[in-house]
Write a structure and sequence with these properties.
The complex is a heterodimer of chains A (410) and B (230). Chain A is an alpha+beta fold. Chain A contains 18 helices and twelve strands. Chain A has helices at residues 3-12, 20-58, 71-83, 116-122, 146-152, 165-172, 193-197, 204-211, 230-240, 250-253, 255-293, 295-303, 308-339, 341-351, 355-362, 373-390, 392-400, 403-408, and strands spanning 61-69, 87-97, 99-102, 105-107, 110-114, 129-132, 141-145, 159-163, 180-188, 199-203, 217-224, 245-249. Chain A is elongated and about 105 Å long. The longest helix of chain B is centred in the last third of the chain and has 18 residues, at 184-201. Classes of the chains: A alpha+beta (410), B alpha/beta (230). The A-B interface holds A 1-3, 6-7, 10-11, 14-15, 296-297, 299-308, 402-404, 407, 410 and B 59, 62, 64-65, 84-85, 88-89, 91-93, 97, 99, 101, 103, 105-109, 112, 116-117, 119-122, 124, 148, 164.
Chain lengths: 410, 230
């Protein structure tokens, strides 16, 4: 083992013990890494969960066209979908906006119509149903999102009126089209504010009637096989779909949301790095103290044949070792806390607002986490670099000491 | 041979060495043209009053301090012409140093302190460990090898420092008042040990001391006064 590394280890762990300085400096890095890991994992968890919700309501890929897709083009699209590797299932949909009215309360939510049987293979919406049943959904009924139903004051079995843009079109032609009465067959709750406040689900037939689409559809929701790469399947589809028809990944469809999530995560990561930087500064100040305290030993090393750059390396190595130890312990503590996060969250909730209030308000009983390998690698690399750089200033000071002056230091 | 006369085949030779330091508005001449040489295996003591330049001369001889003028030869090699890295590397092989304050590394035990001399030169293995153990045995610390410096007495620490100085089989040992921090009896023991082990190892010894009795034990005694040998 090169002597700078040997001496660095011996100074950090003299005679197999842990020096006070080592413990304090390691704890600083450890806590920084733990907090970074937890925050990025929880942030990632919320983002990942919302992403899953979007996929569950839209599919991983949506195929759309500039104008409604007729039977002929739909046949072509379905043939392409059947032969494209990675595609598990696809369901046609028609989507738009309607006005929903119930006992003089009205709202203008998004409406999506689909074939129930095909939808079940693509969108697992039934898992979000909190009242009623998808089996009751027919051409004269709708399923409302939770917040929409609450704002309208309607429950399962209630009858709402649907006003579509087709009615305006007919009025301009001096025709009157009466609003469509629809029974509420169910209520769903996804946990996403935007989706929960303004979504109506109905059969494809009902949607085609409301928009006067006849047999036409607006597009297809596509579900992929597990492990299939969304980007490459979308690329393949775009190469083979008929002209005017495009496939977009859920990230592309929700690009604004994605960019906000990415921005938030990067900002949090950036802010959290300051915790590690503060810990790194504590390493710097401790190592500087060490250089002052060990001035004569540094002089001795020079007198015995130790080169200045090796003396510098010794202090850089101490920063690196402290960083490595702190990072390792920080990851271990972070993953342990993430493992028992629900126990911790529920304990805190129990002591403060009460568990029932907590679950009701935040709409989850388990704190979502999603740890991305790239984030963990970034944390490790940043922590090690910051710790090693923290040793640079003390190393420079130590390397500049002239042995004769250092030995004279009493 | 007079006290300052050079030996026939010197292991170390300093020619007209001059060194001065700024002191306020004037310059303090510490060494005023010192000529000095030590033969292989020779023992030389240097005495002088405080401020006579003993330690400065020792630092210059060790290559720790650059002289303002003059030449320095280590086993015939012009040390004054070497670059800093070369000088540092040569020093580790050519000479060993013993200091008044021992300067042991506190985090490692006595054996590791002795081995450290070899480790600094990139030599570390069973041979080096065996030699370090043998040296510790020779200085009477066989049972104390795994004790850290804080668990050793002053005399024991200086014995470790002597063993460390001899670790790389140097041609020369420079000892700067090695008994300064020791009581008289322990100091005598350390000087006797230093002379014995240098003789056994074939290393020349330059001993800077205030103690006339210790100086008399060396083969040649020099007196430094006002930056010159007298």
């Amino acid at each position: 083992m090169p002597w700078p590394v040997y001496l660095a280890l011996k100074q950090l762990f003299p005679s197999g013990r842990l020096s006070f300085f080592t413990v304090i400096a390691t704890m600083g890095i450890m806590l920084g890494v733990t907090i970074m890991l937890m925050v990025t994992s929880v942030m990632g968890g919320f983002g990942y969960q919302i992403g899953r919700m979007i996929i569950d309501t839209q599919g991983e890929i949506q195929i759309t066209a500039a104008s409604p897709i007729d039977r002929g083009k739909a046949g072509e699209i379905e043939r392409v979908l059947e032969t494209t590797p990675g595609v598990l299932a696809a369901a046609p949909f028609a989507a738009g906006k309607v006005m929903v009215e119930y006992q003089k309360r009205a709202d203008i939510p998004n409406i999506q119509g689909f074939s129930v049987e095909q939808m079940k293979k693509v969108l697992p919406l039934q898992r979000y149903l909190i009242a009623g049943s998808f089996d009751d959904l027919d051409d004269d009924s709708v399923i409302l999102s939770y917040l929409l139903a609450r704002s309208l004051g309607v429950g399962v079995g209630g009858k709402v009126s649907l006003y579509s843009p087709l009615m305006m079109e007919r009025i301009s032609q001096n025709e009157i089209l009466y609003p469509r009465e629809a029974r509420v067959a169910g209520i769903f709750q996804i946990g996403h504010q935007q989706l929960d406040s303004s979504t109506v689900l109905c059969s494809l037939r009902l949607m085609q009637d409301l928009y006067g689409l006849d047999e036409k559809v607006h597009g297809y929701s596509v579900r992929l096989k597990p492990g299939a790469d969304v980007e490459s399947v979308a690329l393949k589809l775009n190469q083979t779909l008929p002209p005017g028809v495009t496939a977009a990944t859920w990230q592309e469809t929700n690009a604004e949301f994605q960019s906000i999530v990415t921005f938030e995560r990067n900002m949090i990561f950036f802010l959290m790095t300051f915790i590690i930087l503060v810990a790194a500064f504590s390493i710097t100040s401790s190592l500087l103290m060490s250089v002052i305290r060990k001035t004569r030993e540094i002089g001795l090393l020079g007198a015995m044949g130790g080169r200045a750059r090796d003396v510098a390396l010794c202090f850089c190595a101490q920063g690196l070792f402290l960083g490595a130890a702190g990072t390792g312990l920080g990851l271990a503590l972070g993953f342990t806390l993430l493992r028992f996060r629900d126990n911790i969250v529920h304990f805190i909730a129990h002591l403060t607002v009460g568990e029932q209030t907590f679950v009701k308000f935040y709409q989850f009983s388990s704190l979502p986490i999603h740890t991305v390998t790239r984030d963990v690698v970034s944390i490790i690399v940043f922590s090690l670099i910051a710790s090693t750089l923290a040793g640079l200033l003390p190393a420079w000071r130590a390397a500049r000491l002239k042995p004769v002056e250092a030995l004279r230091n009493e | 041979m007079s006290n300052a006369d050079p030996p026939a085949s010197p292991v170390l030779r300093a020619v007209d060495v001059r060194k001065s330091y700024p002191s306020g508005s004037r310059t303090l001449e510490v060494l005023r043209g010192v000529d000095f040489a030590v033969a292989a295996g020779e023992t030389v003591s240097i005495r002088g009053e405080s401020g006579s330049g003993k330690s400065t001369l020792l630092n210059v001889l060790a290559g720790l301090d650059r002289p303002d003028a003059g030449e320095l030869y280590w086993a015939g090699e012009a040390a004054h012409r070497l670059g800093l890295d070369q000088l540092t590397a040569r020093r580790g092989r050519f000479l060993g140093m013993v200091f008044q304050s021992y300067y042991l590394i506190p985090e490692i035990d006595a054996l590791a302190n002795v081995v450290m001399s070899a480790r600094l030169l990139g030599r570390i293995g069973p041979v080096e460990r065996a030699r370090a153990a043998a040296l510790l045995n020779r200085v009477g610390l066989r049972e104390r090898g795994h004790h850290v410096p804080s668990h050793l007495s002053g005399g024991e620490r200086q014995r470790v420092a002597v063993a460390r100085a001899l670790m790389n089989r140097p041609k020369l040992i420079l000892a700067d008042e090695p008994t300064g921090n020791l009581d008289e009896r322990t100091g005598d023991e350390v000087i006797q040990l230093l002379l014995e082990v240098c003789a056994e190892e074939g290393a020349a010894l330059v001993l800077v001391t205030h103690n006339p009795a210790h100086a008399k034990k060396t083969g040649r005694q020099l007196l430094l006064h006002d930056g010159r040998f007298v």
